[in-house]
Design goal:
This protein has 162 residues and is mostly beta strands. The chain is built from one helix and eleven strands, in the order H-E-E-E-E-E-E-E-E-E-E-E.
């Protein structure tokens, strides 16, 4: 009886310990409507051998599939190119003969990135630098009249004369 119970436990363990989809991140590429998709799985036991996910990009197109084998790294990446700019709901879910358990949905926005302008900085600030969609604003030097023997300063969110 003890042997039979142990055998049942061992047979059920691989199904219970299936790798699961832990995280999905999507990074738009600098040009066009292409994105870089990173999928991370969680492997709870050494008995989980393989699993696969399919990626539904949400635009009606056929997305890529990612498969993991024994001892492969937990995070894999792939690319997908959308036909047109927009916001899409991407779904990553287990698929195939050995599906990963779980799924993740991610909102993806591609194309239509507006160039950075001074108008994006708040009032009283000016554009310091920009690269793609990333930018930095700095406070405009206000018209402070410092008394003789003092000098204008800025730092740590403060301005003044000292």
């Amino acid at each position: 009886m003890k042997t039979f119970a142990l055998l049942l436990l061992l047979l059920a363990l691989p199904a219970w310990a299936a790798p699961r989809v832990a995280n999905v991140s999507v990074k738009p590429m600098e040009k066009g409507n292409e994105v870089l998709i990173s999928v991370t799985i969680e492997r709870p036991t050494p008995l989980d051998l393989t699993c696969a996910v399919s990626i539904d990009p949400g635009d009606g197109g056929r997305g890529p599939t990612i498969a993991w084998d024994v001892a492969e790294r937990r995070t894999k990446t792939t690319r997908y190119e959308y036909k047109k700019a927009g916001t899409y709901k991407m779904k990553v879910a287990g698929s195939g003969n050995d599906p990963c358990s779980g799924s993740r949905d991610v909102l993806v926005t591609v194309g239509g990135v507006k160039p950075v302008t001074k108008a994006q900085c708040p009032e009283g600030w000016e554009l310091a630098s920009s690269k793609g969609p990333a930018y930095t604003c700095r406070v405009r030097t206000p018209a402070l009249s410092c008394a003789d023997g003092t000098k204008y300063f800025t730092g740590k969110g403060e301005i003044g004369c000292k």
